[in-house]
User: Fold these one by one.
Assistant:
Number 1:
Amino acid sequence: MNKTQRAGMLLLILPFVALVFVFNYLPLFGWSYAFVDYSPGVPLMEQHFVGFKYFRIIFEGGNDFAIVMRNTLVMSLLGLLTSPLPMIFAIALAEVRGKWLSKWIQTVTAIPHFISWVLVYAIFFTFFSLEDGVVNKLLMDMGLIETGTNILGSDGYAWFFQLMVATWKGTGWGAIIYLAAIAGIDQELYQAADIDGAGRFQKIWYITVPSLMPTYFVLLLLAISGILSNGFEQYYVFQNPLNIDKLEVLDTYIYTLGIARAEYAFSTAIGVFKSIVSIVLLLSANWLSKAIRKQSII
Amino acid sequence: MNKSWREYLFQFANSGTLLIFAFLCVYPFYFIIINSLSHPTESAKGVYFFPREITLSSYEQLMQIPTIFQSIFISVARTVVGTIVTVFCSAFVGYMVTKKELPFRSFIYRLIIITMFFSSGLIPWYMLMKTLYLKNNFLLYVLPGAVSAFFIILVKTYIESLPSTLEESAQIDGAGILTIFFKIILPLSLPIIACIAVFTAVGQWNSWADNFYLVTDSSLNTLQYLLYTNLKSNMADIMRTSASGTMLGADLASTGRVTPMSIRYAITVITVIPVMLIYPFMQKYFVKGIMLGAIKG
């Protein structure tokens, strides 16, 4: 291949590389907004430079940031605590006798993953709303409760409820990776265990679980590096004045500050903080993985 | 005998628990569908297993909402256009990075992959979109996701598993890069293309946030956004917007053949139905994509 042809190839790919640059790297220049007292309409160079003022405000307290961080970390921690669920679900599903049954269960339980959070909210609203919610109606008809429970607007149950919603949406889909891994386990191991007289749970504990550990570990480390990101959509659609104290997470807070309240500099500073922490966590997780398992995750 | 009794119990308990969860995953959809087809007064009494007094009045009312057809059009348009664009861009770039003769190949590849690990944040993104005139612009739905690092990895891995003799013999025959791509690589890569297409299509159909952040022109709103505004508005607003000005709308509303809840059911159904319908057929592509991504990742 000669020089002209190679140059032609580069030319062909250039527009796409440009797209990647524009939508991924160009926005990074926007981090400069965190360092100025932004006034709209004034070009960046003429903005009033304030250095690390907004970063200091983050750590100073006296604003909502601490509460938002608390909410963010609580929800992420709850997610980490329930992270074995897809694996447990996959193991349980693999133990089901009927092939058709387990295939059907796997297909059906993955459905919630494919709908948008707005639709998830629509469904949970249908079932749990105070006035016409199905659950409330049923419970009242059965005489179990007097008046409807307002779980969607509950401050106390907010975290638990969101955890339930996320579990409903993610377990079936999350199990797919583990099911594929289980299918790849050498059957001879199980046969040997049978000969040694191992019971079902022993086989699971000594063969299946160790085989799934690498996958689980990688996903766990990735989840840890994403600890500050809970997802904007889930929390925004479920927010209302009653539960906002518990459900305002970093992603929604950045939006509220930045776009709804036009506090561009502060919001950008928080965004920068979040990105840097995520990168540090990811690199640390990668290093940890290299140290412990001699394998990197990226 | 003792052993098989325990086995039976285990199967019963295990499958039972899993079935309960599966039921919880699928019943909500069934419930909403049958309630959207039932007369609202029956629905208010409680419709759980079969629709009662089957009527299409909720859907008739849905058609009276002024923005409904526009939202459906936008959602369909972004799904179709977005999928075609993303599939083409990701496949082409994925192919190009497998060519060792590409100048700066590893630099370009790394440049693309690293984007999966950082994010610029909302405000810089918002500002950039405004500057690029992508606010209130249909291209907002299509361009940012066009070149996807994850899909590029999938395509690259797949193409590298194809025998290199195919390309070599085509080159000997004098075929250029583009010819090879369109005539040979693309047809052979249909499985991975299908996988990417399905992922992208579902993602486009479900997309709501970009609409929310950056679109104030209501003619560009998607169905998801319409559902969102419907869910969050109060009862009076819903009845008012859905009955706005049309004879049929006002009639349906006043005779109680339609309630805010029934309209909500109807909108939810049409928002979820496309995904529901293609899902059984596309399941294997999703699974395959996950496995490929998992192996590489």
Number 2:
Amino acid sequence: MKRIIAITLSVLIFLIFMTAFARVKFGNIALSKYFYFNPVKKQMTRDSVPSHYLKEGIKETGSTNIVTAVVVDYRGFDTLGEVTVLFLASIGVGALMYIKREEKRKVREANEIVKTASAFLFGFIVLFGAYIFVHGHLTPGGGFPGGSVIASAYLLLYLAYPKYAADHSKLSVLESLAGLTFLVTGLLGIIFGGHFLYNFLPYGVPRYLFSAGVIPVIYVAVGIKVGSELTGIVDSMMGVRE
Amino acid sequence: MIFYAASLALVAIGIYVVISKRNLIKIIIGLDMIDTGVNLLLISIGYVRGGTAPIENGNYPLYVDPIPHALVLTAIVIGVSVMALALSIVIGLYRHTGTLEIDEIRGLVK
């Protein structure tokens, strides 16, 4: 009975939303068809917000990757909140998963292939994660994917070596330093430019590594922070092992 | 159009899983499916036909909408944190009650 109700409800929701989205043409949006009042130019313009980002983003932020420009520069405050949410989740997981030393969990030894391969690949995976977040303003990717890649390298170590445990104090020091870098960069923006997260460094030449002002600094900080937080989450989920 | 249908189908399957299943881990997997479906829907709304990824390369004129990408980047991170918290709460519940079925947990709490 419950299963029938669930099936009808989900089919009903699917049909309602499908009829609504049947009117939205797939892939046919002209990004510059809307009129709106531009508060900077004091006139009605034809530019929509995304087409403004696409046209002026590289001039206004110096970042080649427009998604990075939106995430770190135009809406950097939002990213600060996002990082805070991830920090709170990591604290919550650490508090909920706390167990006493007596309740150790038994784990099985991994086989030789996993051990050798993870010892060989660990450095390369960390290097690849660092590449992703250092080049966040030039190529697809950024702090969050890079940090996740680094955390996956640590997860591989945890799976291969049951006795391995990351140093918690070093992880928290790294995490706090990265968060502090983000905040201090934002506050230096107040000193140099007048508002929080102002891009005060020179923009440089676009498409070069040292360009886009504070965006690479913030994204490296975000990458290190996300990497250490997700490693901490993995570590607490693994629990105390024998 | 097939992208809308697929993402809404993911949402519908997720809702079915959340309503009908009794295991807490399966309910969390259903929530994750709803999350993924909504993210896919947002990305496919922002698609422009013939557009490429919004990275300036100087010689390609048409890009897809960058705003849903930035929004979904945020949503993925929030989804991961919610999922990690939910899983750890479930593990704590399992330690206290010894079961994952919500009917049995309801009986035990009374």
